[in-house]
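hey m, so remember when u said the tokens were messed up on ur end? i reran from scratch. heres the input so u can diff it against urs
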Amino acid sequence: MTGPTALEIDLDAIASNWRQLDAMHPGETGAAVKADAYGLGANQVAPALLNAGCQNFFVAHLSEALPLRPLLPGAMLAVLHGILPGEASEFVARDLTPVLTSLGDVERWRKEVTRHGRKLPAILHADTGMSRLGMTPTEMAALENDPALLDGIDVKILLSHLISSEIPEAETNFAQLQRFNALRPKFPAAKTSLANSAGMFLGLSFQADLARPGAALYGLNPTPDAANPMRPAVRLTARILQIRTIEPGETVGYNATWTAPRRSHIATIAAGYADGYLRSLSNRATARFDGHPVPLVGRVSMDLATFDVTGHPDAQPGDSLELIGPGHDADAIAAEAGTNGYEILTSLGRRYHRHYIGGQQTP
């Protein structure tokens, strides 16, 4: 390990997770690599997924797509947030597929069709209940009533997004499926895409033609009420900078939020909320030393956190604590922080020394 903290990212595990999901899906399986592949490094992750067989990739912003385009030759690279004014020509020049989320997007893309004098591909996002991005029912009705609005636009995929896919019994899942199925006959030439990671486990009716997992690829549990079927892909370790002995009644950290109940040995590591080790973990998180849990005591500060290693007399400065790993994964630390695994992964800081294992790596 180089430096005080190390983030190990297993590209082979990510590729294996994609293959596992692809094997259970009767159609195609894409990959969400937005937010820098959920914080793990899209420039490394996306080529590894391409090498595994993935041909459909999704990012949020045009700015995320531009550096990935040369790394994904021949693959579809779609931008979920649509087309902002002035961006349309960049989509054509870089062979990017816009996800049309409003009539404004449709108009901007149709103008680009006219300018180039040829059909251009697009994905149509229908909002079936999220009330976030996507064509409203009124906008979808406008497209149906005036087919000329889509003249020259080759709608490759009809897409929607599930609200509560991680809750199998949620009524919203079935309401959205019903709304989505009602739209499908209106675009008979388009493939369909509905399922995210958790949606792939709701049954075949939700999977449509193209699934687009994200979280499950990176080892997060797509079935929160059951054992995680995915391989872990992340290990975060931090070296102990110092160990000090404090007496009963002495406090640790800002605002003295933890008081030693006994003579205690406190290990300080170089990871804090500036590194994405969230402040909400204060007095709640656990790390692992030689596979055994050690509690975080006191407040997480910007650059440091403190752990009680009193029960581990072998712990020494230079030894490592495992903050995220197979025995305490991102979902577990998310539960301690009162958030979800998505926030844990996407918050991982740039100061960590990053080490990639296997896969198709790009400098």
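this time it looks ok to me. The CA atoms of residues 174 and 206 lie 9 Å apart. if urs says something different then somethings off w ur setup not the seq
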